[in-house]
Design a protein that fits this description.
Layout (H helix, E strand, L loop, with lengths): L4 E2 L2 E10 L2 E8 L5 E7 L7 H15 L9 E7 L2 E7 L4 E2 H8 L4 H20 L2 E2 L8 E3 L5 E3 L6 E2 L20 H5 L6 H17 L9 H10 L14 H10 L11 H16 L12 H15 L15 H27 L4 H12 L4 H18 L6 H23 L13 H18 L3 H14 L8 H37 L3 H15 L6 H6 L24
Antiparallel strand pairs: 1-2, 2-3, 3-4, 4-6, 5-6, 7-9, 8-11, 9-10
């Protein structure tokens, strides 16, 4: 098709081929800009599931607006050939980069990984699972920007399924166990598994499982434990090594919660490295033995020293033995000292001080580290420590933040698998949120407070699963109370301004202020008493109010 015209696009060269068609580089004759055009031709490409998947990919891209996802441009059919145009990304695929460069430095893997997490989290938030994440579907520009491409077999959780249960789609080297089985359990965590495989390949230059056929690969993904990247490349951070193994966990529940959580972990690692903080690395286990063997060999082959007369001599046996024993004693003392230092329990004050420093941060990752590394050991090892009230408040702050993040998803009007409530607390929140929102919408914030308080009473604050939602319900009620207090203060201030204007004879100004009050606050029941005392009726036009000495004075800010 090179040289042919598809609508306003003129085909220039082939960029790649796939199961659903060919991708060409083209130029838009109207704008002069380059584009990537995917073409699906022939009679089979104009109907059936193949065409539906082709069209679904275009529709999925059309709803995306993200810097790390290739942008949709147009969809059409020209002389019996269906096509859609996408943003042309100059650069190379990650697959091509790995073939050209081999394994990538861990810092570069982290940078690319953060971008991939952003793209996947955005897609997952829109109810789309990629299902075919692999290096050939990741474009890398010369500036190091990553672009996620090829949603040809993506699963739209809000649309009719195009794959029957038991049918497997994807690339065997990157498929999660649940994807291989073809079960309905495919979720956003299926993409997380493939992302772990891609990270492993970027660090080591090869996939974690290799085999001569797709069947062999699938069996490995189902039954073999994921290898650690550090077994091949030990010069990587321990946190990155652990994260990749966790991403490739067989049960989806053992993988990180979502791509955003993975992005937070990678960002924290990048920030620590860029700020010069200590980043614990995986300790090489094989190099030490080889080094010692080489050293021993060199010592054994070194000839004895010569005196000035040319005679060879050896150290007295007793002195050498004494020296060796002394060195061994010194090494043993040093090792025991190090072990004692590592095992010596830190004090409660030390753990509290380190936790307090991290909890002063505004970043959730620091809070999580504080809980895992210091708050948990403090409460566990020192059950009667004097900071119990403080650690409980810290734990509640973290729980409240986590519940608030989950609540924002539950509040989404788009119902997907990620926005469906799963626990008792989440179900209670959805019910209270709907009732409280409806009450606030009609101006009855007092009723909204009652709904939130009722939710808090129904939940058990001592239950680990329900406590975050109990805290969130209490916070929602308190937020509404603060909003009421602020609203009453504003109305009181404006009523006083209107009264002062009336006393100065500025009747028009007073009426204007009153009209403003009725327009913006007349439907709020929590200020009805103020309006009544000022002689205002929310159902009628405002009239100049009479002076009311009992009306509290609030100075203007």
């Amino acid at each position: 098709m090179i040289g042919e015209q598809l609508g306003s696009y003129r085909i220039e060269a082939i960029l790649g081929t796939g199961a659903m068609g060919v991708v060409y580089r083209a130029i838009n004759d109207t704008t002069g800009r380059q584009a990537a055009v995917k073409v699906i031709g022939g009679e089979v490409g104009q109907k059936g599931k193949l065409y539906e998947r082709f069209r679904r990919e275009a529709e999925i891209l059309q709803q995306f607006r993200h810097p790390n996802i290739v942008r949709f441009l147009a969809l059409g059919r020209f002389k019996g050939t269906s096509y859609f145009a996408m943003e042309y990304v100059p650069g190379e695929t990650l697959d091509q980069m790995l073939r050209r460069r081999g394994p990538l430095p861990w810092r570069e893997v982290v940078d690319l990984g953060i971008q991939l997490c952003d793209a996947l989290h955005y897609a997952h938030e829109h109810g789309v699972i990629h299902r075919d994440l692999k290096p050939s579907n990741l474009m890398i520009t010369a500036e190091g920007q990553l672009k996620l491409t090829d949603f040809g077999i993506a699963k739209d959780l809000d649309a009719t399924a195009l794959t029957a249960t038991g049918r497997t789609l994807g690339t065997a080297a990157y498929m999660a166990p649940e994807q291989i089985r073809g079960t309905p359990a495919i979720s956003h965590k299926t993409d997380l598994y493939a992302m772990g495989v891609v990270f492993y390949q970027m660090l080591t230059g090869r996939a974690p499982f290799e085999g001569g056929s797709p069947v062999v690969l699938m069996h490995a993904h189902l039954s073999q434990s994921p290898p650690r990247p550090s077994a091949t490349v030990p010069e990587i951070p321990k946190a990155l090594d652990d994260l990749i193994v966790k991403l490739m966990a067989k049960p989806p529940t053992d993988r990180p919660w979502d791509a955003a959580a993975v992005g937070v972990a990678l960002t924290d690692l990048r920030d620590k490295a860029s700020q010069g903080d200590t980043v614990p690395m995986v300790v090489p286990t094989e190099g030490d033995t080889a080094s010692q063997a080489s050293s021993s060999s060199a010592t054994a082959t070194k000839p004895p020293k010569k005196t000035k007369s040319g005679c060879r001599f050896a150290l007295p046996a007793l002195n050498r033995a004494t020296l060796e024993v002394s060195l061994l004693v010194l090494v043993l003392v040093a090792c025991l000292g190090f072990v004692a230092y590592m095992l010596w329990p830190p004090s409660a004050a030390y753990l509290h001080r380190r936790a307090a420093r991290l909890m002063e941060s505004s970043r959730r990752a620091d809070w999580i580290e504080a809980r895992q590394s210091y708050i948990d050991p403090l409460d566990r090892d020192f059950p009667n420590h004097p900071y119990r009230e403080q650690t409980r408040a810290w734990r509640d702050r973290i729980l409240l933040d986590e519940a608030g993040e989950r609540a924002r998803r539950l509040e989404s009007p788009v119902r997907t698998r990620f926005t469906e409530p799963q626990t008792t607390g989440e179900h209670e929140y959805i019910e209270a949120y709907a009732l409280a929102s409806e009450a606030s919408g009609r101006g009855d914030d007092q009723a909204a407070i009652q709904y939130w308080e009722e939710m808090a009473r129904r939940l058990k604050p001592d239950d680990a699963e329900q406590r975050p939602w109990s805290l969130l319900a209490q916070k929602r009620a308190e937020d509404v109370r603060k909003a009421i207090a602020e609203r009453r203060e504003i109305v009181i201030r404006q009523l006083n301004d209107a009264e002062r204007a009336r006393q100065r004879g500025e009747t028009l100004k007073a009426l204007t202020i009153q009209a403003h009050i009725l327009k913006h606050y007349g439907s709020n029941g929590d200020v009805a008493d103020l309006l009544k005392r000022a002689g205002l009726n929310s159902q009628a036009q405002p009239t100049p109010p009479t002076a009311d000495p009992s009306l509290p004075e609030v100075s203007s800010p």
